[in-house]
# Entry
Amino acid sequence: MRVRELVWRVSADAPAYRTRTTAVELAVMSAENTSTLQVCRSCGGGAPIDVHFCPKCTKILALGRHGDYFSYFGLRRKLTIDGAELEQRFRTLSRQFHPDYFYNASPVERRASLERSSYLNDAYRTLRHPIARVEYLLQLEGMPAGGNADGGKHVPASLLEEVFALNEELDEIRELRAGGTSPDAWRPRLERARVPIEARRAAHETELQDLAARWDALIDRRADVGERRTVLEALRERMLERNYINNLLAGIERELAA
Ligand SMILES: [Zn+2]
# Structure
């Protein structure tokens, strides 16, 4: 891995090399992304990938080549983010990129200010929410948890027991309802059926927080790809389970509202 990183860094300036970002490159970038460069369209000078203004001519840089939401904010790829600090950085960058400041600037700079403002908003919206942050990290690391490839039909192994019990209970409740039984009889049962699922959701939040802390520790000590992958896989598993649990709870809500 070390050698490959080195080779990639050396060749990072060759534009042909940068047409597509592979998972390996992303992994390398996650380890270290200060070594890559972007080119200033105003003066032609080079600038580190994560700066917003040209170090040479101070003009705003076009958003051609950039890192990711984390590096955009000058943050490392960690899951624990101080909300107040993030907001502070957002406000500062927001002011710096504001299109009003570029009213009389060149078209290239005006466009750059719009692009940087828009990307900043997307980045902030994503990073400020802990769950969206985890989803984004997984996507960035080439392991997206969304999309539900199997349409959410596959029951996560760790939830089999709860899902089985819940489905049995729901079947019985539906039968009662179909038979014209008063809501006073089945509603409390439905409410009770929700309790163990909600307990799982609470347990999940804790597990996610623990995994996030483990991930951050790996980033701090610059752990290798293998170690990071183990935690990412666990995170991905939790996210899929989380989606499943939320769907179950939404299903119960629908039954209650019906
Ligand atoms: Zn420049």
In short: Residues 40, 42-43, 45, 54, 56-57, 59 surround zinc ion (CB under 6 Å). The chain has two domains: 2-140, 157-257.
